[in-house]
């Protein structure tokens, strides 16, 4: 399992470069029409801020959560360079204390892009926490890698039990209305870490009112 300390080391080793770039993930960006100014969003495992800052640029009120202090500092710098406001939290989302009560049940969008380095029991907590953070009628946006990614080797976990399948996500979010759930391949050009053909799975799910 990749720990918070492992991610801190990776972000430190990247130096001034942004490990995953400064432009939003392309799956997230493809859903631009669904995001509206004034909506409240939270980005989980947000790294150096590329996705949260992009959402803030659309006029959303954005909170971002990341375990690495170095990544959070670079995210703050990215937001400042674009004169945008994002509430950045440094927190390990696998801690029992996460999520705080103040953040639960109040987001129009809960966004998790490549939040995938967790064992199955920890993943269950992550998915349950996503639903806790979302308000009734709000939406979850999730993007991850499928087992086919192991043969491509262009990023993501190296252990099959950390990868997502259609059946896994259908079961995990059975209480939601699945608006989109698809496997696809795409060419990623995201900083130093995500480069090349990638086997992906994307989901948008809506919580009951």
Overall description:
- There is one protein chain.
- The termini are far apart.
- The chain is an alpha/beta fold.
- It has one domain: Rossmann fold (3-Layer(aba) Sandwich).
- A 7-stranded mixed beta sheet has the order 3-2-1-4-5-7-6.
- The model has no long low-confidence stretch (mean pLDDT 94).
- It has helices at residues 4-13, 26-30, 50-57, 69-81, 120-133, 149-152, 166-172, and strands spanning 40-44, 61-66, 87-90, 107-113, 134-145, 177-190, 194-206.
Summarize the structure.
This protein has 209 residues and is α/β, with parallel strands linked by helices. It contains seven helices and seven strands.
Instruction: Give the helix/strand class.
Output: alpha/beta
What is the rounded Rg? Answer: 16 Å
CATH architectural group: 3-Layer(aba) Sandwich
What's the CATH topology label? Rossmann fold
Q: How widely separated are the two ends?
A: 36 Å
The helix content, as a percent range, equals 25-40%
Uncertain spans: none
Q: What's the overall average pLDDT, rounded?
A: 94
Sheet having the most strands? 7 strands, mixed
Shape summary = globular
- Count of the separate structural domains: 1
Estimate what percentage of residues fall within beta strands. Answer: 25-35%
CATH classification class: Alpha Beta
What is the CATH homology-level superfamily?
Vaccinia Virus protein VP39
């Amino acid at each position: 399992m990749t720990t918070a300390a492992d991610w801190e080391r990776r972000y430190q080793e990247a130096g001034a470069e942004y490990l995953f770039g400064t432009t939003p993930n392309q799956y997230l960006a493809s859903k631009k029409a669904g995001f509206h100014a004034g909506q409240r969003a939270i980005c989980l495992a947000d790294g150096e801020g590329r996705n949260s800052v992009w959402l803030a640029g659309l006029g959303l009120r954005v909170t971002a959560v990341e375990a690495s202090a170095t990544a959070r500092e670079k995210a703050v710098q990215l937001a400042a360079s674009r004169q945008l406001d994002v509430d950045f939290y440094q927190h390990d989302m696998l801690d029992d204390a996460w999520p705080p009560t103040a953040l639960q049940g109040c987001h129009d969008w809960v966004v998790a892009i490549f939040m995938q380095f967790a064992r199955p029991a920890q993943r269950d907590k992550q998915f349950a926490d996503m639903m806790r953070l979302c308000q009734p009628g709000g939406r979850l946006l999730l993007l991850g890698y499928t087992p086919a990614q192991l043969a491509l080797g262009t990023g993501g976990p190296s252990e099959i039990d950390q990868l997502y399948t259609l059946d896994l996500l259908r079961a995990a979010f059975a209480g939601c209305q699945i608006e989109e759930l698809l496997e696809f391949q795409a060419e990623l050009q995201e900083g130093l870490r995500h480069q090349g053909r990638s086997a992906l799975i994307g989901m948008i799910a809506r919580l009951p009112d």
